[in-house]
Every structure is written in structure tokens, then in C-alpha cells.
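Hey,
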Amino acid sequence: MREAASFYENVFAWNVRGHDTDRPSFDDGTGHVSGAWMRNQEISRQPGLLPYIYVEHIDETVERIVAHGGDMVVAPHPEGSLWVATFRDPAGNVMGLWHEGPR
């Protein structure tokens, strides 16, 4: 849980509070999304609901994901005017990325 909190803080610049607690919480870079890491939840290995995180530079974000212990599940690819990808964080959760405009 603490490793995952550090991962999102380093890769996406999320504001993480309570690093040394059993329930670190976060706000994303926009301040519109907030949440917390919970011990009593299953790891989301097979997404039913797949959250996508907006990024300004998808290739730079992929580099940070890998550098901080994440793995790419599906490399960036075009979907209309978007570039999308999926990754696995160090805790094993599968999440998505999206970027609008040219790569």
C-alpha cells in the first residue's frame, strides 16, 4: 500500500497524505479526484471497471511508470484522437492512461 502510494506520487505527482499510516490518501493533480488506499480491498488485476488517468505526455508517463516499478500491459496506441495505454502498478492493479492530441 505504501509502495503504491509512493508510485502514484512519483509518476503522476499526486498529493499523498499519511504516508506512514495504514490508510494513505491522495488528491490528483487537478484536485478533482481524491481517494485512499485500503487494505481490505482485492487487487484489481482483471479490470471490470478500468479507470483511466489523463496525462499530458503519454510517452514520458510510460517511462516514469517503468522507472518506478510498474509494468505496461498494453503499450500506447491510438483510439480516434486519443492515445491510450494500460499499466500494472507495483501492487498489481491494472489502470489506464489517456492523452489527447498528437503523440
